[in-house]
Structures are given as C-alpha cells and as structure tokens.
Amino acid sequence: VGEVARGIEARKSSMRSEAAELLSEAEASAAERVAKAELRAAERISAAQAEVAGRRAALEAVLVEREREMEARLAVLSSRRAALEQQVGETRAAGEREVLLLEESFAARRLERDEEAQRLEESIAAPPRPGGGVGGGG
C-alpha cells in the first residue's frame, strides 16, 4: 500500500509539474500573441496616423492653392472694378459736359426767341409806316 501511495503521489506530482509547464507555455504563448497583436495594432495606428497626416497635408495644399486662386480672382475683379469706376467717372463727366452744352444751347435759343418776341412786340406796337402795309397809299 505504501508503494502504491508513493506511486500515486509521484504521479500527482508529475501531473502537477506537467500542468504547470503547460500553463507556463500557454501563458507564454498568450503573452506572445498579445505582444504580436499589440505590435500589429500599433503598426495600424501608426499607418492610420500617417495617412491622416498625409490627407491633412494634401487638404492644406489644396486650400492654399484655392486661396491663391481666390486672391488672383480678387485682384482681377478689383482691377476690373477700378476700370469700370474710371469709365463711369469719364462717362459722368462727359454727360455733365453734354448737359452744360445743352443748357447753353437752350439758353441761347431762349434768348433768340425772347429777342425775336421783343422785336415782334415792338413792331406790333409801333405805328404803321406810311406806304407800308396792306393796300398802302402809294
């Protein structure tokens, strides 16, 4: 009975030792898998961060280019506006000169009509001349 008990104890001890080794191997294998998974995750994160940084840089470049284009358009529009304002000023000045000429012309015509009306009134008011007029005594 003692030998059987010692055999059983030895067998238990051997099984515990194997179980401990298996457990240790399993833990090591699990730790290795976790480490590998963490490494892959870190690589993915790094790749994603690099992609985001690349996209951000590309978007910033596009925005800078669009800003340059807008500034160029603004410069063109400002130049056009200045040219149009100059044209408007010139047209306004020409219009004002034309209005002054027309006013002078109307004033001159009005003066001529007034003078003509004055002569007509004077001729009507003046006594008839002898020998002049309708059926005059010749």
Give your account of this protein's structure.
This protein is mainly α. The termini are far apart. The model has no long low-confidence stretch (mean pLDDT 91).
What is the secondary structure topology, with strand pairs?
Layout: H1 2-125
Radius of gyration: 57 Å
Q: What's the count of strands?
A: 0
Q: Largest sheet, described in full?
A: none
Average pLDDT level:
91
Low-confidence stretches: none
Distance between the termini: 192 Å
General form: rod-shaped
Spell the H/E element sequence: H
Count of separate DSSP helical elements: 1
Helix proportion of residues, in percent?
A: over 70%
Strand content: under 5%
Supply the helix-strand structural class: mainly alpha
Notable characteristics:
mainly alpha; 1 helix; about 140 residues; rod-shaped
Give a brief description:
By secondary structure, the protein is mainly α. Helix content is about 90%, strand content about 0%.
